Predict the 3D structure of the following.
Amino acid sequence: MLDSLRAYWPSLNGRVDLVDLVWLRIIAVTEPALYRWIEEYLTAYAALAAGRVHISEAERTALAKRMDDALAAEGLDWKRMQFELERHLPGLNFHNFNQGKEERLFSKAQRGAHAQDFERARLASPSHSRLYFALVEPPDSVTDTDVAELLEAANGGMNDVAALFLRLSDKRGDAGATKAERLLDQLAIFDEEIVQGWPVEALTLGLVNVADELAKDDAGDDWGYPRVWYLADALLKHLSRVLPEQRGKDLVERLFAKGLSLGFISHLLRNETFSHGFYGDRPNASDAITDRATFDTVRSIMVRRYAAGGLHRILAERNAITILYAWSQAGGRDEVVKAVAERTAEDGAFVELMLKICSTSVSSPAATRPSMLLFHILTNRLFAAEHRSPNAQEFLRRHAAEAFSPGPEAVIVGTYMGEVDWPLEEHSSALDRYFEERVRKSGLHAPRILEAAAILALSERVRSGDDPDGARRLIARAVEADPANQALRGFKREWSPEMTVSWRALLLPARSAPDLKEAGGDA
């Protein structure tokens, strides 16, 4: 054991807690099965603390069973070891009141315990646990040096803080969290007397100014909001509770008046709007970062900011839909309606607006663009030229290539409009993707006759490529897609490789193929 300590201590001296290190090295030498389980548990705990993974009940139960197995392999058991393990490992709970549920692992400790673990570089600290095993810190770990560097940057001004957070966002750990996120999480646990001595104003404004940039590569949670926003929100709530009252109010007003990340600020405003009951029917003042008087002030500030920037400024933002909701819910609904109505006087402009919102909104991913484009093109095709949207031909010219690029929507609409001319492999892949999407409730569900048409269109291309067996399999697949279609069932029985597979003649014999090039015009 002493040899093990001699090997580790030179690299870890001053970077970890000595008591934890000695305990862990004793476990490594005398109880290797338990040591391996501890490493597995701490890795999972660090990922959970990063907010990038979810531990299901099944996973928690399986990990607990592996703990029991590891203890048994060393002649130990939970009853004998629970207090010792709890002294060194995070999230352990030996007060199991629900006998039908595994609750020994991943329990939520008091925030104060997290702060102490971090300050002492304990094994239980997610920012330090990897050091005890690998001798090196993970890319996203946070130390006292990082906190000191942030405070030094804050003394230099908000621009230095913004630059530091952007640098830290490039360092990402195994669980997907960035060092910037880890640092924000850590800042929210510092005690009142420590925080009050910080240059809070520069620190928070620097953070708010880059909050949208920090979130640009984050797909977000189930509500579409990136984790870094939640962490920044938690930090601001912590500061509002520990700062002197007037200093906290002045800080909040300045963030809303001067902050550059309009998406994040609008996210904060919406939270305040709901928390104070100004909008919605479930007020919860304890969740707010302001009192009601300060909220009324910042609400007025933001409504003026939105109106001054106008709809054009908002649509340039990635989080346009969040901003529009914030403007409307904060009391600017009439202005929003008027601005949108003026911008969408023509149908083409309305679709353009919808496309812009879909492509810039966190909660409406850019993947919805093909559906919107194809909807506009197809609906204009259903009417004579005099009834089509103004400038429909120009809209088609600008967006046809994107709309009919290989994808699950385009393989259906493109088949009907005769616009599928992709390489055979991409055609087949797009059709497979359609049926993969179809099994989900939220997936595209075309009429069965169009599904069969898309399959038959592919079968003709396969037949023309001298693969009659492949074409035959696809014809059978088309029958499975539309089993009640008697004409299709008869075609399957009679088909031979010499026969052209014309889905339109077979399924829609009374209709000719639409001419896409006549899809628009103002005639």
The longest helix spans residues 292-315. Confidence is low (pLDDT under 50) at residues 360-366, 515-523. The radius of gyration is 30 Å.
